[in-house]
Amino acid sequence: MTLAPLSSAASDVKQSRTDALISHADYVKQLRPLLPDEAFTPNLNKIWFLVINLAMLVAGWAIASYMDQWQWYWLWLYLPISLVMGNSVIVLLFSCHDLMHGSGVRHSRLFRLVSFLGLSMLWMPPTLWRAVHNREHHRNTNSEIDPDRNYLYNQPNTWGKWIQDRFVPSNEVSPFGLIVGMGHAWGVHTFRNMTSVVLFNRKDVDYVPAAFTISRRERWAIVREVFLIILVHVGIMASLSFDPVKLLFSYFLPIWIGHAGAMFYIYTNHMLSPMTAINDPLVNSVSLRVPKIFDVLHFNFSYHTEHHLFPGMNSDYYPMVQELLLKHYPERFHLLPVGQVWKLMLETPRHYEDDQTFTTWSGEQSMICPLTIDP
User: Fold this and answer.
1) What range defines the domain where residue 183 resides?
2) pLDDT, tens digit (0-9, with 9 covering 90-100), for 228-241
3) Would residue 374 count as lying in a domain?
């Protein structure tokens, strides 16, 4: 899987851009001595947030179990509960995301239980998450071998690439496609990577942006975890008597809201950035300015560049990292209002023509990445 050949001049430009990159290790070497040691100690509070939000979901399902006694014209009263449950799904992902980077739980049995409970509503096996996110994505962020990057224009037009083209925010996506995609893109991401490693486990699988492999032990662990996740979801639906109305309001709608909210953040993390041959988090990642309430609710997930610099850090200290970046690297650090980032995503294509250029499915329209680095 390689990019199209470049001309000599283009190769020189690409080399100069690569030379302009700074490695993750170099940033850490400069910034880590400026941060307190307590920023890197385990934070058990996130476990309680996870437990509280699991309890909120259970309470929502308990209330929904009585919906067959409601008059149909009162069903709309459940919508605020659906919204709260949807936010709980987001919190489960982000709290588990932090915990699995080592910022909270390090006891193996407790770690496995918490990570499974936290990711079960996302249909994400914890073993798969550790492989695709912690290992592959963080080590190879927005490079050609990052499974979370945009597809390349010269990759085969597979079903995975077609789904991204139709449902991910871009200048070509339809309003209907975007709405559908917001609620289902997380599931597609999970299914795509899970089937790639469980069914094939080869680096030539072409329907993922970048295929990776895992060990035999990890493959069987993923299968076991998927089976347990299915049991959890069947149990939830059974507790709701498989009633379509109950399932719509208290199961499907919260999951759609939760997945859409998570994807709103995730789309902005790297998909608007150029690809980088060297893992330079200030170039290949974006941090957002969002209303403070969302940082409180979602563990400072908007501080995404800061997270990629120090993934094991207690997220409460990300604002401190941001202050250091604004002081030491103001010209490199992408800190943008969330509305501006979303607008840029809807104004640009989503396939990489090269590491600095986006292009459409047909290749007829190309644009330089708005966050490109100057050679």
Assistant:
1) 8-368
2) 999 999 999 999 99
3) no
